[in-house]
Amino acid sequence: MTDFKLAPDSENSSKGPLTLLVVEDNAISLRMIQVSLLRLGYKVDAAADGAAAVDKFTNNIYDVILMDIMMPVMDGMEATIEIRKIEVARQIPSERRVKIIACTANAFEDDRSKFFEAGMDYYINKPVEIEELRRILNS
Asked: To which H or E segment does residue 139 belong?
């Protein structure tokens, strides 16, 4: 797992709540996560697949992306790779890049290694436990 710090520091404390992009192809799961995060005070946007996530990332600024792995059109691994390419093209320093959290039921050691190789920063298991996610986001 890479260094993962999201809590506002002195430089970003006036920025306000974190802005998250939730990428999930299951409409019910997506809605449940969205509502829970909104209730916790985060700004939340949504995408139903990796291609839509890449498009939204291209046109918006997010602090964190909660990325499902198994999706139609473009999976979470491919979407992460594309997002990281966009950041390189924009010359975004590594310490300023968006934090991407893999969200998956497949959290075997081999899978985790692949997530990090693709450019993800962290992972959580499905079903998503909102308290665990809140703890991660506030760390």
From this structure: none
Residues in Cβ contact with 44 at an 8 Å cutoff, skipping those fewer than 6 apart:
19, 20, 21, 22, 34, 37, 38
Read off the tokens for 22. 């939730």
Q: Which residue has the tokens 């890049």?
A: 97
CATH code assigned to 19-137: 3.40.50.2300
**Of the candidates 97, 56, 61, the residue with the CA atom closest to the CA atom of residue 79:** 56
What pLDDT digit, counting tens, does each position of 81-111 carry?
Answer: 999 999 999 999 988 999 999 998 866 777 7
Q: Which two tokens stand for residue 45?
A: 């946007």
Question: Tokens in use for 42?
Answer: 């985060």
